[in-house]
Structures are given as structure tokens and as C-alpha cells.
């Protein structure tokens, strides 16, 4: 029992970093994904090509590589080190680099989810808005919330993926839950440490799943009223 308490209390020290990374990345990624989804409907070839290129890069490469490129790669640019001290200060911080990589990665996947939901909106909704003389901006104000509600089920999986993705933040010296797991394993080398770590991630993701289900049910119930 003493060891169990020692392992759990030590691992708990990494929870604030894991939770702050997860919440910050999820909020920023969701907002960015909504913006990109709207821009994808603009029918502007150059803009849509840039967005699709961004999505291709961040969905086609491993998250770990993205974290390394942001944290280690930007240090090679002398222009940032010598002429942009504020920006260099941000990119020299492990938490910010991990947050940025997670947010950009999640935003790419979330944009695919939201844009797919928008394309799946029945033609009748678009035709009804057109019949009322609505322009594209007004139509999106009506259709986009409907699409986002339908995307909540798929989006909840992405939220969980972000939490699990925070485990990679330990690779750039960030003391999150996984980093404390590695610290304990290096000192005591016991399999139970991994079981406890997995149980903590399971509890976090289980809690998030319940919250997402409640949000989805309330959103759909509000729509049916």
C-alpha cells in the first residue's frame, strides 16, 4: 500500500501539466477548426488549397515528429533567435511547443470532421436558406450549428486522442503524467507503475467521454424542441 500511494501521489504531480495541455489544445483546436471549416466553403481556390495542404501535412505526419520540429527545428532559424526575442522565448518553452503541436494537429483532424458534417447536411436545408434569400454568411449561421451538433459524436473521439497525445510531451522534457511515469520506472522498475498510469489516463478519458455524451444529448434535445 505504501508503494501504491507513493506511485500514485508522484504521478499526480504531472496531472496539472497533462490537463492544462489537453484543455488548452482542445479549445484552440476547436476554434481554429470552425474557422477553417468556414473558409473551406469560400470557394476560393488558393485559400482552400492552403488549408488542404495544412491538413495533409498534419494528418499525414506523426504527432511526435511535429512536436520535435516545433521544439527543436525552430531553434535553427537565426532570424527567430536574433531578431524575434519574444517569439523565441515562446518557442523555447516545452509547454508552449507541445501545446502548439497538439492544437495544430487536432485542428487538422477536427476540420475534417466538421467539414464532413457540413457536407452531409441535407440539400433541403441549403435550398430552404436560398429560398429565403440568405447569402452565404447567413446560410452558414443556420447550417453550421446543425452540422456541428451532428459531428459531436465523432468529435468526442478526437478530444480523447488529444489527451492521449499529451503523453508525447514528455519527449521534450515536459514533466507531465508520462514523464513522472518514466521517472518512477527508472527508479523502481516495476510494472505496476504503468498500470497505475494507464488507469489515470483511463479515468480522465472516461470522465471526458461522459461530459461529451451529456453535451451531445443536450444539444440534440435542444434542437428537437
Decide which structural class fits the backbone. Answer: mainly alpha
Contiguous runs where pLDDT drops below 50 for at least 5 residues: none
CATH topology: MetI-like fold
Distance linking N and C termini: 52 Å
Order of helices and strands: HHHHHHHHHHH
Count of discrete domains: 1
Mean pLDDT: 90
In terms of DSSP E residues, the strand content is under 5%
Helical segment count: 11
How many β-strand stretches?
0
The CATH H-level superfamily is MetI-like
CATH class: Mainly Alpha
What does it look like?
This protein is mainly α and 225 residues long. The protein has a single domain (2-224), classed as MetI-like (MetI-like fold). The chain contains 11 helices and no strands. The longest helix has 34 residues, at 191-224. The termini are far apart. The model has no long low-confidence stretch (mean pLDDT 90).
Q: Could you provide a short overview of the structure?
A:
By secondary structure, the protein is mostly helical. It has helices spanning 2-12, 15-40, 45-60, 63-73, 78-83, 85-91, 94-119, 123-131, 136-165, 177-188, 191-224.
Amino acid at each position: 500500500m505504501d508503494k501504491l500511494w507513493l506511485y500514485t501521489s508522484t504521478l499526480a504531480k504531472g496531472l496539472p501539466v497533462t490537463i492544462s495541455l489537453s484543455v488548452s489544445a482542445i479549445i484552440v483546436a476547436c476554434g481554429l477548426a470552425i474557422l477553417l471549416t468556414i473558409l473551406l466553403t469560400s470557394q476560393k481556390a488558393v485559400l482552400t488549397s492552403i488549408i488542404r495542404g495544412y491538413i495533409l501535412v498534419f494528418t499525414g505526419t506523426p504527432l511526435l515528429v511535429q512536436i520535435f520540429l516545433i521544439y527543436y527545428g525552430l531553434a535553427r532559424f537565426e532570424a527567430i533567435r536574433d531578431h524575434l526575442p519574444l517569439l523565441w522565448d515562446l518557442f523555447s518553452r516545452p509547454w508552449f511547443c507541445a501545446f502548439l503541436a497538439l492544437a495544430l494537429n487536432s485542428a487538422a483532424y477536427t476540420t475534417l470532421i466538421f467539414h464532413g458534417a457540413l457536407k452531409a447536411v441535407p440539400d433541403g436545408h441549403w435550398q430552404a436558406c436560398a429560398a429565403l434569400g440568405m447569402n452565404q454568411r447567413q446560410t452558414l449561421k443556420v447550417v453550421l450549428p446543425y452540422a456541428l451538433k451532428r459531428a459531436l459524436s465523432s468529435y468526442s473521439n478526437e478530444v480523447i486522442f488529444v489527451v492521449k497525445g499529451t503523453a508525447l510531451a514528455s519527449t521534450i522534457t515536459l514533466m507531465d503524467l508520462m514523464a513522472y511515469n518514466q521517472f518512477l520506472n527508472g527508479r523502481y522498475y516495476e510494472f505496476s507503475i504503468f498500470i497505475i498510469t494507464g488507469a489515470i489516463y483511463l479515468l480522465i478519458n472516461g470522465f471526458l467521454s461522459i461530459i461529451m455524451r451529456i453535451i451531445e444529448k443536450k444539444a440534440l434535445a435542444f434542437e428537437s424542441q
